[in-house]
Amino acid sequence: MKYSRQREMILQTLKDFPVHPTAEELYQELRKKLPRISLGTVYRNLNLLTELKVISQLETSGSTSIRYDARNDEHCHLICSTCGKVMDASLDHFASLDTIVLEQLGFAVLEHGIVLKGTCQTCLRQNETHTTQ
């Protein structure tokens, strides 16, 4: 892959982003540093980085937006059904699941693609506040 300053900025901004952004969210953040960058450039580079497996795409049900993840290690995602927030979770929590699957089903897990959907801590607290008032 040929070096591109814009591509490097897109990747670094994605790595620094506190959540898994959409292309549009990433574009808005990039415009603060590169005011002349186009949304098309962001999309093209995200697609290229995805093809090269430098980053990954996350599709969440109930949303047409694709979110992007710069984390290359194997991990799973927790998606809040209330606010749409996507969080990373270590696979350490699921190591025993691999053993159970092997022992009970005779299937050796080689790769994970785990997505757990539920309600995040913030939304749980807000719901608690509304129900106690």
Explain how this protein is built.
With 133 residues, the protein is α+β, with helices and mostly antiparallel strands. The mean pLDDT is 89. The protein has 5 helices and 5 strands. The chain folds into 2 domains: 1-71, Winged helix-like DNA-binding domain superfamily/Winged helix DNA-binding domain (Arc Repressor Mutant, subunit A, Orthogonal Bundle), CATH 1.10.10.10; 73-133, Ferric-uptake regulator, C-terminal dimerisarion domain (Dna Ligase, domain 1, 2-Layer Sandwich). α1 (5-16) crosses α2 (23-30), α1 (5-16) crosses α3 and α2 crosses α3 (39-51). The strands form 2 sheets. Strands 4-3-5 form a 3-stranded mixed sheet, with no helix packed on it. A two-stranded antiparallel sheet has the order 1-2.
Explain the layout of strands and helices:
Blueprint: H1 5-16, H2 23-30, H3 39-51, E1 56-59, E2 66-69, E3 76-80, E4 86-89, H4 95-105, E5 115-118, H5 121-132
Parallel strand pairs: 3-5
Antiparallel strand pairs: 1-2, 3-4
Please tell me the total number of domains.
2
- In round numbers, the mean pLDDT is 89
- Biggest β-sheet description: 3 strands, mixed
Low-confidence stretches: none
Widest sheet, order of strands:
4-3-5
CATH class of the largest domain: Mainly Alpha
Question: Pairing-aware structural class of the strands and helices?
Answer: alpha+beta
Q: Specify the CATH architecture of the largest domain.
A: Orthogonal Bundle
What is the straight-line distance between the termini? 57 Å
Order of helices and strands: HHHEEEEHEH
Q: Helix share of residues?
A: 40-55%
Give the overall form. Answer: flat
> What Rg do the Cα atoms give?
18 Å
Counted beta strands: 5
